[in-house]
Amino acid sequence: MPELDVAVIGAGQAGLSAAYHLRRAGFEPDRHFVVFDHAPRPGGAWQFRWPSLTYGKVHGMHSLPGMELTGADDGRPSSEVIGGYFDAYEERFDLRVHRPVGVSAVRDGDGGRLLVETTEGAYATRALINATGTWDRPFWPRYPGQETFLGRQLHTANYPGPAEFAGLRVVVVGGGASGTQHLMEIAEVAAATHWVTRRPPVFREGPFGEEQGRAAVAMVEERVRRGLPPQSVVSVTGLPLNDAVRRARAEGVLDRLPMFDRITPGGVAWADGRTVEADVLLWATGFRAAVDHLAPLRLREAGGGIQVENTRAVRDARVHLVGYGPSASTIGANRAGRAAVRSITRLLDSVPT
Fold it and tell me: Given 49, 74, 203, 297, which residue has the most CB atoms within 10 angstroms?
């Protein structure tokens, strides 16, 4: 069985940042550390984004450490731009990502090591950096009558772009950035659209500066420190009010309805008797952390989340989570990768092999 110092699971922004900092700290790929990625090609979750999400529509993409993303065409799909950038990054720093390799479980092994079970065999490692993000765990809420709906139901995770909704009646569920983006472009081709959210949306005027960013991170970090599941970013930051959003609000596209009470064969209904007919229900209801493979380590707290201090799992100092909770942003993932490597280096120096 191959023995490693560090295994990295995931090659998105957080995983590549961690691999870069491992390289900088003197760890060699395929000797001291390995990066596993289940995706077929470089690009992390970005490679699965819908074609109409062009690079110019991406909010706050931050370059990976050591190599800037420059000269990108705002009109190209973000999947192509960022996928190509990640590919070049892996090659430049010789990160030797193992793909497509799935990780089914991480459990205690012999001699204080962790046993990482993958589709290419088992590995024994002294420490683990988990960078699996959320894309693989779309959240589908459940409502009475959902199984009776005669139309199509789909999630942001398999959103194909607006063309498939031409002439249809569409209900978009979810108050985040993806939901508003879907709604605004579908409204241009659909017969009718309705926007449904659990809470009234909060639109943010003005720039989102460093002070607001720190406050948002602090709120998410507090939940993670208490062992609660991380909140969505929009629940903390609000929706940016740009020209496209202002136009959509003026045209009535972003007139929000409260959450319906049940789903009917032909649409959705509220307890007060109001109904909306629909051909499609589009669930833009977010994602949950993809950490089921860590279940054998029993890291979850009673509140349902994994308690994390900085990037370290409180229940197991060998395990670090990056791109989780407060580091679930492109700049946060970069910083978390560096912090995790520093902490792991100290741990490995203090524990004899």
Answer: 49
